[in-house]
């Protein structure tokens, strides 16, 4: 059975118009009544909920929710009634365990000054001390005035047995810790808010069923943070994994685009080097062939030179012979005429030859003119194109300068434009470009440091966040362990109280309990369990010592009884052996009598020598015997003769005649063998007078028992009867003594048995005490909880230190980051660029492009100047050729006139020679002259040929030298291109043929990648790569994508070669094309190529997808279906049971109006197509997840996936201020999946839904029924979240106002059935209904706004109400 806390007593000290007032609860029930203004609402609201959470706001103090009432006013009182400006007061509520005398008190202290603020302190007393019983909250002055304790004095009074706090929140935590134990203060706060709503005495105009539904919904326990933590962490992990996957996929897409262009770049680079090498090699082969051919020509020319020398000599000899023959024939007139004719004809032939030559020369020059014109046109086109390219480059430079904020460009361009058509020195331009590029590099280096610090800051921040989350988890664990520790302490308390009740043999006083509770509160922190146990150990040893003392006492008493039994048995034996009983006398007397007997002296004790006469009544006999006994005569000896006596008494006869003597009552009665005669005895009898008067010299007695003898007078104590005088009397007495002794023996036996039983009981008690102490509750569970709590606290301390270190690290990084930011801004000052890394990277990219464009401008300008020079050269050539053409045309015209004239002269001379008959002579002369002419013609030709051959030999030698130089350059160029190709191939960035020589590899590369070489240019490939590089750099920031220039580190291979302009262009072209860039990225601490990273990234994506699929499976199968699903199923089933129970309770309400209420918790329909109806979902959740069909599993998975996706959407919509955990908590709030609906049914009417409209048509009592029943249910549901030991406290102002008598009875029955403790007030009700088993009723009387309140107390026991006159009586009644 749960030993719940129940409110037991409330108290107000120096508060409102109370000086010191205590209100007792009857088993957790208190009812305040009184007229308006009596203070019943003030009293109730000052206790509940103020003493639950310590909040003193005005809306808490007014059941209508206004802010008119202030706690300061209650504490100080109304100014008009009490002249008080400062006051200290206390409110407290005492809780008691239902089934044990265990008390805890919570309360608040208040100190107010009028028109000023109010001081607050809260306290809890946990050591079982009670206010007004063990301690007081005031000091009592000699005048009798009660001065409330200050906070400091209260701390001193409570000592270790209580706690005092300064703030409302701390007080609320104390109340929750010691009494209610809600999992969180939020849940406790929600309960209190609900209690405030429940407290309201009137039905608000806004109150309607829909409001009830909201209250009912909020009263259901939500999924806790701990229950959802694993789910939200898994989802966050999945989201992070998905984000990582998405980032990987984005990175992969970027990398793939980069690799595509990088592949083209690499293919072009290797094709270019292979192609250039093959071209260079081909040129080398061509020049080698030309050299060989030149050597062969040189040999041929040398042989021809020797042949020509022989031929010239032969011709010179023949020429001499022919000239002699010609001289001989020359003297003939015909010859002379013929000579003239020949001269004319020769002249004509020469003219004609000259005309032909000039015409041929003219044709050549005209053709040369046309060629030069074409070349000039081509050069002009090339010059124009080159100019356009320069303009394009300048445009690119202007744009790149603008994008890179290169301010020096404008001046450099203006300077260049002024010297565009002449050689220009680009040195300054290049230096300024390099300087700006270096500045950008420095800024970007700072940006890299900035981003690295930012990344480190974010990593440190996330790391700090993760450690903070772990710290929060540890705090949560510590909170749980502390709650468990407090619970185990509570259980230990209960166990100790139960142990105390179960073992009354160890008397435990209240001081011990208080010490125990004080020590227990600080167990293991300040005290060991042995300290906690010591007060009980002391009581144990005290009880043990006490019982051991009792055992010794009983053993001693048993020994005494045994001894007494032995003595009694001895006495019995003597009595049985003794004929006559003898009076007891001194040992010396016995010895004296034995001596007399030994001496033969006859004697007999007086009592044994006489007998009463029969007429003497028993009473008189007793008086006579008693007088004689008391006077010492009864045992005196009667001797026959006078003897000397020692240590004894004897009677010497002195008879008195004619007097009233003892002989009238007694007569001699003695055996003769004793030796004492009857006469002697008779004389003794007559010597004792019977008289009321003293007779001098005689012993007198009377019938009343008085006696006298000389100075001695006495009165004998009364005895039962005469027992010694007379044989029969002695026999009777002997027998009676034997009977008494036997009875005494029996009693002693019984007493012995009793004492043995007592001893056995004491021994059993000692054993029980031993056993009881052995069974004293163990602290094992408390110790385990404390060890875990302590371990968690140490872990918190360690983690806190780690968090502080991480925080310091974060702050350090933040300081460095701030410093870099400052340096960065200083470096970037004056640059017209957006202050972002991306913009500066873009500026750097543009600056690199600028540098490239500047290089291309230099080359293009060089080409432009070359074209300009060539164009000027061709123009000069054209002008020369045109002049030569004009001169040739004039010469041709002159020669044509001369030809005409010579033709006429030759015609005339032919007619004249024909007439002279000179044909024969002419024939001879003609033969000679023809031959001579041929010789003369052939000889110069041979000589010219000889000179030409000699010139050709010289030219060939020069040509051979030039070929040697060109071949050396070509060989070197081919070699460097070969090395460039091999180095390119060794990069392994493109596929090349394997196991073949490099030349074949180059051919294979040209064949394989020839298309890209035809379709692309170097500048276009580089531009595309740079474009995609700059574009994707922003996407691949994490990998620190960079361009690493690669160049062959070698000395100038052309250093020993005299280079012409064409060679220099080729060398420049090689230098430009030999270099390339390598793209590298960071991956796992290494610099790798994009292709390697792409392969690894594809693997990572595959692994990440597998991880996400596994996480997805775990999320929807393991977590949602099994973990969260089980919790949801439990919560829903619990709510359904709760609704069922409430319906059962409401169905049992026998409302006088015939109004029956019922409530349904209806599942809602699906909100989207992917989601399921709640009813169907709940049915599937109720099933074992392992037994679900695949299609059902998929539907549930899709449902929750839709919910979680909606959670993500909500998170995006809500944005800042919300976490995924919070949004998931909202989305998976099962309370939103259902809707509450109230139904009502009146007599002879069907059941209807209680809509707002129908609610407004209800009577006041019906509205109250419809309001209270659901709200009671809501409060009950809220209390389910507290500890099972927590009290279920509610308060009602003007309880059940407007509800008829029968329904009020049912309302009280409903309150009882839900197990509520309560404070209620009413102006009209007494609360004395048969459905209330016990009730403490306090009637408050405050006549005419008096400054005091009188409390009249009643107690209702379920059947009768009676007046209670004082506190102690009420305390006793309440306990009963």
UniProtKB/TrEMBL annotation:
Pfam families: SbcC_Walker_B (PF13558). Keywords: Coiled coil. The keyword Coiled coil applies. It comes from the Bacteria. InterPro entries: CHP02680 (IPR013496), P-loop_NTPase (IPR027417). Residues 228-382, 537-578, 738-772, 878-905, 946-980 form a coiled coil. Signal peptide: none annotated. This is TIGR02680 family protein. It comes from Parageobacillus galactosidasius. The lineage of its organism: Bacteria, Bacillati, Bacillota, Bacilli, Bacillales.
């Amino acid at each position: 059975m749960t030993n719940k806390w129940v409110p037991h007593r409330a108290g107000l000290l120096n508060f409102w118009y109370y000086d010191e007032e205590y209100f007792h609860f009857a088993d957790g029930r208190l009812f305040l009544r009184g007229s308006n203004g009596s203070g019943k609402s003030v009293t109730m609201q000052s206790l509940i909920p103020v003493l639950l959470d310590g909040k003193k706001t005005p809306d808490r103090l007014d059941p209508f929710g206004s802010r008119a009432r202030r706690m300061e006013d209650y504490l100080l009182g109304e100014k008009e009634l009490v002249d008080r400006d400062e006051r200290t007061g206390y409110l407290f509520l005492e809780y008691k365990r239902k089934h044990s005398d265990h008390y805890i008190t919570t309360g608040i202290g208040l100190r107010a000054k009028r028109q000023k603020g109010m001081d607050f302190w809260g306290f809890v007393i946990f050591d079982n001390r009670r206010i007004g019983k063990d301690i007081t909250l005031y000091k009592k002055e000699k005048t009798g005035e009660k001065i409330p304790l200050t906070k400091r004095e209260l701390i001193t009074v409570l000592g270790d047995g209580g706690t005092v706090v300064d703030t409302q929140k701390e007080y609320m935590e104390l109340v929750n810790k010691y009494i209610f134990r809600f999992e969180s203060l939020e849940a406790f706060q929600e309960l209190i808010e609900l209690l405030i709503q429940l407290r309201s005495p009137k039905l608000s105009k806004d109150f309607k069923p829909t409001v009830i539904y909201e209250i009912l919904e909020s009263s259901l326990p939500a999924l806790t943070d701990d229950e959802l933590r694993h789910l939200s962490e898994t989802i966050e992990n999945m989201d992070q994994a998905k984000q990582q996957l998405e980032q990987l996929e984005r990175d992969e897409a970027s990398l793939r685009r980069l690799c595509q262009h990088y592949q083209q770049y690499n293919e072009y680079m290797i094709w270019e080097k292979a192609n250039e090498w093959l071209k260079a090699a081909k040129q080398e082969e061509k020049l080698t062939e030309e050299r060989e051919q030149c050597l062969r020509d040189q040999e041929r020319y040398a042989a021809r030179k020797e042949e020509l020398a022989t031929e010239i000599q032969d011709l010179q000899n023949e020429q001499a012979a022919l000239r002699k023959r010609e001289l001989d024939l020359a003297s003939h007139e015909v010859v002379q005429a013929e000579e003239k004719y020949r001269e004319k004809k020769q002249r004509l032939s020469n003219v004609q030859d000259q005309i032909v030559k000039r015409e041929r020369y003219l044709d050549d020059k005209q053709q040369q003119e046309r060629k030069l014109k074409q070349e000039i046109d081509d050069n002009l086109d090339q010059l124009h194109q080159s100019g356009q390219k320069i303009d394009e480059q300048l445009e690119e430079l202007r744009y790149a300068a603008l994008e890179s904020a290169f301010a020096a460009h404008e001046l450099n361009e203006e300077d260049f434009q002024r010297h565009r058509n002449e050689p220009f020195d680009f040195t300054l331009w290049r230096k300024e470009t390099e300087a700006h590029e270096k500045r950008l590099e420095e800024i970007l280096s700072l940006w890299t440091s900035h981003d690295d610090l930012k990344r480190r800051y974010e990593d440190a921040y996330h790391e700090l966040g993760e450690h903070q989350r772990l710290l929060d988890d540890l705090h949560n664990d510590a909170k749980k362990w502390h709650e468990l520790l407090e619970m185990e302490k509570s259980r230990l308390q209960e166990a100790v109280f139960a142990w105390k009740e179960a073992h009354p043999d160890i008397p435990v006083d209240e001081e011990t309990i208080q010490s125990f509770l004080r020590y227990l509160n600080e167990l293991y922190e300040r005290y060991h369990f042995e300290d906690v146990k010591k007060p009980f150990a002391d009581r144990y040893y005290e009880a043990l010592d006490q019982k051991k003392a009792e055992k010794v006492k009983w053993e001693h008493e048993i020994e005494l009884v045994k001894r007494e039994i032995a003595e009694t048995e001895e006495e019995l034996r003597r009595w049985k052996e003794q004929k006559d009983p003898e009076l007891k006398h001194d040992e010396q007397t016995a010895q004296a009598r034995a001596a007399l007997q030994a001496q033969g002296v006859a004697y007999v004790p007086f009592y044994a020598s006489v007998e009463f006469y029969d007429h003497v009544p028993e009473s008189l006999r007793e008086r006579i015997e008693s007088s004689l006994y008391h006077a010492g005569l009864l045992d005196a000896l009667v001797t026959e003769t006078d003897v000397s006596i020692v240590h004894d008494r004897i009677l010497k006869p002195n008879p008195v005649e004619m007097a009233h003597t003892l002989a009238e009552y007694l007569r001699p009665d003695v055996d003769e063998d004793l030796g004492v005669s009857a006469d002697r005895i008779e004389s003794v009898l007559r010597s004792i007078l019977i008289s009321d008067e003293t007779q001098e010299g005689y012993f007198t007695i009377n019938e009343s028992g008085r006696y006298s003898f000389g100075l001695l007078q006495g009165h004998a104590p009364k005895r039962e009867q005469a027992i010694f005088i007379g044989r029969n009397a002695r026999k009777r007495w002997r027998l009676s003594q034997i009977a008494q002794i036997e009875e005494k023996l029996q009693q002693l036996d019984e007493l012995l048995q009793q004492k043995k039983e007592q001893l056995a009981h004491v021994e059993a008690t000692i054993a029980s005490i031993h056993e009881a102490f052995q069974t004293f509750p163990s602290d094992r569970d408390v110790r385990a909880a404390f060890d875990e709590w302590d371990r968690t606290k140490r872990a918190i301390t360690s983690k806190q230190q780690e968090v502080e270190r991480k925080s310091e690290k974060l702050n350090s990084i933040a300081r460095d980051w701030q410093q870099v930011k400052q340096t960065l801004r200083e470096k970037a000052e004056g640059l017209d660029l957006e202050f972002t890394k991306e913009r500066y990277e873009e500026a750097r990219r543009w600056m690199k492009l600028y540098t490239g464009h500047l290089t291309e401008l230099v080359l293009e300008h060089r080409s432009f100047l070359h074209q300009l020079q060539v164009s000027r050269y061709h123009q000069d050539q054209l002008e020369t050729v045109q002049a030569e053409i004009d001169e040739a045309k004039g010469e041709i015209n002159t020669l044509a006139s001369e030809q005409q004239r010579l033709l006429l002269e030759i015609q005339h001379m032919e007619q004249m020679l024909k007439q002279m008959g000179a044909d024969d002579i002419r024939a001879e002369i003609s033969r000679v002259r023809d031959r001579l002419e041929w010789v003369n013609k052939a000889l110069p030709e041979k000589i010219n040929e000889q000179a030409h051959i000699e010139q050709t030999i010289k030219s060939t030698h020069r040509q051979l030298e030039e070929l040697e130089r060109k071949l050396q350059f070509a060989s070197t160029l081919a070699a460097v291109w070969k090395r460039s190709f091999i180095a390119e191939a060794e990069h392994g960035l493109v596929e090349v043929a394997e196991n073949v020589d490099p030349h074949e590899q180059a051919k294979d590369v040209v064949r394989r990648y020839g298309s890209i070489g035809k379709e692309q240019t170097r500048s276009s490939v580089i531009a595309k790569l740079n474009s995609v590089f700059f574009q994707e750099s922003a996407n691949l920031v994490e990998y620190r994508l960079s361009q690493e220039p690669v160049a062959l580190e070698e000395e100038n291979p052309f250093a020993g070669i005299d280079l012409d302009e064409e060679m220099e262009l080729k060398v420049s072209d090689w230098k430009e094309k030999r270099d390339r860039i390598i793209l590298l990225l960071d991956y796992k601490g290494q610099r790798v190529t994009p292709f390697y990273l792409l392969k690894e990234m594809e693997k990572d994506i595959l692994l990440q997808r597998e991880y996400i699929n596994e996480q997805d499976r775990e999320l929807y199968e393991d977590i949602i279906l099994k973990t969260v699903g089980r919790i949801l199923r439990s919560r829903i089933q619990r709510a359904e049971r709760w609704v069922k129970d409430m319906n059962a309770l409401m169905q049992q309400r026998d409302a006088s109006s015939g109004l029956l209420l019922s409530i349904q918790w209806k599942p809602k329909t699906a909100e989207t197509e992917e989601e399921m109806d709640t009813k169907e979902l709940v049915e599937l959740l109720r099933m074992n997840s392992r037994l679900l069909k695949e299609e059902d599993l998929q539907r549930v998975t899709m449902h929750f996936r839709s919910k979680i996706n909606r959670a993500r959407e909500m998170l995006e919509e809500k944005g800042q201020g919300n976490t995924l955990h919070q949004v998931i908590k909202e989305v998976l709030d099962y309370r939103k999946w259902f809707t509450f609906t109230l139904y009502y049914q009146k007599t002879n009417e069907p059941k209807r839904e209680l809509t707002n409209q129908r609610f407004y048509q209800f009577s006041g009592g019906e509205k109250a029924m419809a309001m209270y029943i659901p709200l009671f249910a809501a409060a009950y549901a809220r209390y389910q979240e507290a500890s099972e030991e927590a009290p279920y406290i509610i308060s009602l102002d003007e309880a059940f106002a407007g509800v008829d008598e029968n329904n009020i009875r049912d309302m009280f029955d409903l309150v009882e059935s839900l197990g509520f403790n309560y404070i209620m007030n009413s102006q009209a009700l007494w609360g004395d209904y048969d459905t209330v088993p016990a009730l403490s009723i306090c009637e408050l009387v405050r006549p005419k706004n008096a400054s005091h309140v009188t409390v009249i107390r009643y107690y209702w026991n379920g059947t009768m109400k009676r007046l209670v006159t004082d506190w102690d009586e009420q305390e006793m009644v309440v306990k009963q």
